[in-house]
Design brief:
- The complex is a heterodimer of chains A (258) and B (378).
- Chain A has 258 residues and is an alpha/beta fold.
- Chain A has a domain at 5-96 and 169-253: Rossmann fold.
- Chain A is 35% helix and 26% strand.
- In chain A, helix 3 (102-111) crosses helix 4, helix 3 (102-111) runs parallel beside helix 6 and helix 6 runs parallel beside helix 7.
- Chain A is globular and about 55 Å long.
- Chain A starts with a strand and ends in a 5-residue tail after the last helix.
- Chain B is mainly alpha-helical and 378 residues long.
- Chain B contains 15 helices and no strands.
- In chain B, helix 12 runs antiparallel to helix 15.
- The longest helix of chain B has 35 residues, at 97-131.
- The chains are: A alpha/beta (258), B mainly alpha (378).
Chain lengths: 258, 378
């Protein structure tokens, strides 16, 4: 069920400001691809163009192609709602729905799209929570408010919520930046398990994290503040961190700038 | 002098919080230079504020009485001035100028608080004292039918019923429109049309109630030829209520974090469902409070009701045909008659009106608490 993504000639704007310029890259199925780079280089923006969340921001607009297997996400007649059902997203800060219980949060994607059968929902909720390594911790309090969970548990709840709708691809925008090391480890383990089934793209500021969990890494940079971000290179993670082809990549990962 | 000598009084004063100037070796800080700055300073004891307040009140009232002022408001003003001045002088002498400024600001807040609370309590107390005598099951369940103006007795049932119907109809008209307008402005609007809507909502907020009444009068009664009715009043009340609902809905929706909308959209939920199932439930408590407060506001409106509902001493349960009564109108009419029996009825009517509005407010708070996102400490 995992699909491959091919981005070609993609440029994203906020109003008249060009945030990323002419990006072309491929994301392999059933693997983890990490986006790294200094702040403002457009890695989050690029991530959000992959499930058409970029256009939710006022003024957000995209040129170029994003192919999901054989289909162009920005082709004519493509419904962004259908795209987002296929390509799920986990955000930087845990954002469970505060009016809903743990169970309702996980079931939200299905319920809000019209599935009502309790049996189906029950099994999806259990499966997703197990998939997110959270089932054991919450199975006795499924109907308690989600806000009673810790930050790390909330983030795993958000991952469970994202995988409950069975997406083809999972996008993660710095999913561990608001978490402590123990919760980070839990989420990283989870990502390692999820890649068996999903195509995963993760934006991270933590280079050790990118080295630990990703199969391929893309490095982005920007010439100066206010200029659009560009892709410097994308390669096997091992090569990026040991023997990158661009000097800028080597400078960045060895901490000489950024 | 050893180190323990200088730290001991500082610790003691920070624990006790009282002045200990007498124990401090004078000039010790100067001799040691900037490296040994004392953090604990002389402080006024905690009971000093109430003592100053009591002293200034006593002095203010005493001086007022001695000068032959008869109005207690003058006494209170003098006491308040004395309180603020004494607080400043005392604190500046003991604690320093910055702390004096702090305490003066605090004492001004207290004075303003009292200036707001005293009239409120006085109003509530006067209404209860004058109005509670007449309140009874009979008063609440009977109309003024068959009672002459100067005769005691009668009741308020027709006015209560009229107010409930008129306010209910006005809410049914204004709340959905206001709610949807607020949703449009926050979730969809952004262009010139939204700016125009915002502008007209602002204009509507400033429309005097009598103007809203006159508008409905010229349009509904004079233009279309309908007679006075509860519904005509409801339309004017709805005009007054709508901008309040729009504003409060807008503010509450703006408080919903953008991350929640994104989380829902990223699950592949359509925008309208995101608004209906995620955004509105999150803001439900605040929106309900806003609507209830708007209801409470229009319940006391008199001018449009006077023009459009007209007043009726008998029970008219049909808000769509014929003149009705309402609580504010009842109070006005009874007070205007000017005899003992009718003034008593006016007080009782006022008390009923206040109780009704207070009940609505309490209900709004209960709903807000019940509906607010659970366990987030908000």
């Amino acid at each position: 069920m995992a699909k491959r993504i091919d981005v070609s000639g993609l440029t994203a704007y906020y109003g008249t400001h060009r945030a990323v310029d002419d990006i072309s890259l491929s994301i392999e199925p059933r693997s983890v691809t990490a986006f790294i780079g200094p702040s403002g280089c457009g890695k989050s923006t690029l991530l959000r163009t992959l499930n058409r969340m970029h256009e939710v921001t006022p003024g957000g607009r995209v040129e170029g192609k994003v192919m999901l297997d054989e289909e162009d996400l920005y082709g004519p007649g493509v419904d962004p709602v259908a795209v987002r059902r296929t390509i799920g997203m986990v955000f930087q800060r845990p954002n469970p729905f505060p009016t809903m219980s743990i169970y309702e949060n996980v079931a939200a994607g299905l319920r809000l799209n019209g599935t009502k059968k309790k049996k189906v929902l029950d099994s999806v909720v259990e499966h997703s929570l197990q998939g997110a390594n959270l089932w054991k911790e919450v199975k006795d309090r499924l109907h308690k408010p989600s806000s009673h969970l810790s930050g790390g548990q909330q983030q795993r709840l958000c991952i469970a919520r994202a995988i409950a709708v069975q997406p083809q691809v999972l996008l993660m925008d710095e999913p561990c930046s608001a978490l402590d090391p123990v919760s980070t480890l839990a989420v990283e383990d989870l990502i390692g398990g999820l890649k068996e089934q999903y195509t995963i793209v993760i934006v991270t500021h933590n280079m050790q994290q990118a080295a630990r969990i990703s199969d391929r890494t893309a490095f982005f940079n920007l010439a100066e503040i206010g200029r659009p971000g560009t892709l410097v290179e994308i390669d096997e993670t091992e090569r990026i961190f040991s023997n990158p082809s661009a000097q800028a990549t080597e400078d960045y990962i060895s901490g000489r700038f950024g | 002098m050893s180190r323990t000598d200088t730290t001991a009084p500082a610790q003691r004063s920070s624990r006790g919080g009282t002045a200990d100037a007498g124990e401090r070796p004078v000039g010790a800080a100067h001799r040691r230079g900037a490296t040994d700055v004392r953090l604990a300073k002389r402080r006024l004891p905690r009971w000093s504020s109430p003592l100053v307040a009591a002293g200034s009140a006593a002095l203010g009232c005493g001086a007022g009485a001695a000068a032959g002022w008869h109005n207690p408001v003058q006494w209170a003003l003098l006491s308040a001035l004395l309180f603020v001045a004494a607080t400043y002088v005392l604190t500046a002498a003991v604690e320093g100028r910055r702390q004096a400024g702090d305490r003066v600001a605090a004492s001004l807040v207290w004075v303003c608080f009292l200036a707001a609370v005293v009239p409120l309590v006085s109003l509530a107390w006067t209404t209860v004292r004058n109005g509670s005598g007449l309140i009874s099951g009979y008063f609440l369940t009977h109309s003024m039918g068959g009672i002459t103006n100067i005769q005691p007795g009668g009741g308020i049932y027709h006015a209560l019923l009229g107010t409930l119907e008129q306010v209910g109809l006005a809410t049914a008209l204004a709340a959905p429109v206001g709610l949807l307008t607020g949703v449009y402005l926050v979730e969809y609007g952004g262009g010139r049309f939204a700016a125009a809507v915002t502008f007209f909502v602002d204009v509507m907020t400033g429309v005097p109630s009598i103007v809203a009444g006159l508008f409905v009068l010229s349009f509904w009664n004079l233009g279309l030829g309908f007679g006075p009715s509860g519904f005509a009043g409801s339309m004017a009340l709805a005009l007054l209520m709508m901008p309040v609902v729009v504003r409060s809905t807008e503010e509450m929706l703006k408080l919903v974090p953008h991350e929640l909308r994104e989380a829902s959209l990223a699950l592949g939920v359509p925008k309208w469902r995101t608004i209906a199932r995620v955004v509105l439930p999150t803001a439900a408590g605040g929106i309900t409070t806003g609507v209830m407060l708007a209801v409470a506001r229009i319940t006391g409106e008199t001018a449009p009701v006077m023009l459009l509902v007209f007043g009726n001493p008998l029970i008219n349960p049909d808000p769509f045909a014929g003149a009705q009564e309402s609580l504010p109108l009842y109070v006005w009419n009874q007070y205007k008659l000017g005899n003992d029996a009718s003034v008593d009825r006016a007080w009782a009517g006022a008390l009923t009106l206040i109780a009704f509005v207070m009940l609505l407010n309490l209900l709004a708070r209960a709903v807000a608490r019940w509906k607010s996102p659970r366990g987030t400490g908000r």
